[in-house]
Amino acid sequence: MRKITVLSMISLDGVMQSPGAPKEDPSGNFKYGGWVEPYGDEVYGKVVQQEMQPHDYLLGRKTFKIWEAYWPLHEAQWPAINAGTKYVFSKTVKKSNWQHTVFLKSVADLKKLKASVGANIQVWGSSELVPLLLKHNLVDELRLKIHPLLLGKGKRLFDNRAIPLSFKLTDQVITPGGVIIATYRRTGKVRTGTVGE
Question: Looking at the whole model, is its pTM more than 0.85?
């Protein structure tokens, strides 16, 4: 069985839309594309380099189209992304010239992928796919880069589809720019109690 890790850059209010560039995803008249750039520093860069070690990838359609247009042209910079298998969850896109690309179209396909033997899987971006994975208990780990700003509007990492789960903090880094990079491993059901008793 493969481990699925969701990696996401989010604002304090949970917005994950268009972190890398103004034109990355302007849907919904989002005006703050590229909001991650001011927080780049040496510590942040080292974390990203570590995350970019060889993996397989699970991507939603829109994130895949962004990656497909960029990464094949930058293979020398990040060869692991081009070498890894890209699993694309889409009901409309069915083929690509990008090497090592496989298309999935149902939750059953996602479950079969997780149960298969192979490299661990990273999910980047994919604001519509991540809630679906959380709804079906397919996420083993969350790796969040929490940036010190509020964006107000935009696509958010979490919605009300996620099933209740508890997680354990397994690693954390705070960058000089104030970004909290936290890794959470799924531990099981939510426990409750009464404070003070």
Answer: yes
